[in-house]
Amino acid sequence: MTRPFRFGVVAPVLTDVRSWTEQARRLAGQGFSTLLVPDVPLWQPAPAPLLAHAAAVADLRVGTWVYASPFRPPWATAWEAHSLTELTGGRFEMGIGTGRPGIEDELRDRGMAVPSPAERLDRVRDTVDELRAMDGTDVHTPVVMAVRGPRATAVGLEVADTLTFAARVGDTREGMAARAREVLRVRDVELALHVPVVGDDVAPFMASAAETDPQALREADSLLVLPADPAAAVEELRRRREEIGYSYVVVGAGAADRMAPVVAELAGT
Fold it and tell me: Which of 13, 95, 161, 164 is 20 to 30 A removed from 186 (C-alpha atoms)?
């Protein structure tokens, strides 16, 4: 099944909340479907109140990109996610994963235990189980899961509505396509493509500028980059959907204005 395109923006609070609120309204006006925030303790306002605020002031879906399961007890995350679904009138989607690179040091700095990879996956599964119990039969909070290895992918296929592959700079187009084909053979799940580089703009939270060279990514035909030219980006995204299955495209806030013509052309088609 060919899914219609939708577009999300990872938009952390980098200046002040008033400017961020204006940005949320602008994204809605440009046709983006989802405003997403990272889960980094003390880096910005906490995700739950921030996303509830965004949904109250802008006609957008909102979501986490993504909850880091090692920081959060499953029941507490599920309660927060279910509450956001209720408060936003069903416009919340819970992004969740096993944690970003370097999270082990963050956990130790806060006096928290460092769970094993298997324990982190168990927490993700337990969180979704708790969420489904809280949602009951009449509510469904969509779950987006960030995966990479085969075990995480298997869990994602069990519990998630949308999968995003935690791509690295060295991942090739064909390698990413092969992983997508394997997933889609098992289940017709929505695939989200995380694009940290548009033209020469590198999203500060989504990728490290020191490790993500736009020219090198273009030469490698990486899926982590899109052309700056809107027409070329439209053509490339259509190719990625046709050949691989990506229909949900997530970019950084710095690229939103550049991507606006692409969103106008493709969203909903």
Answer: 95
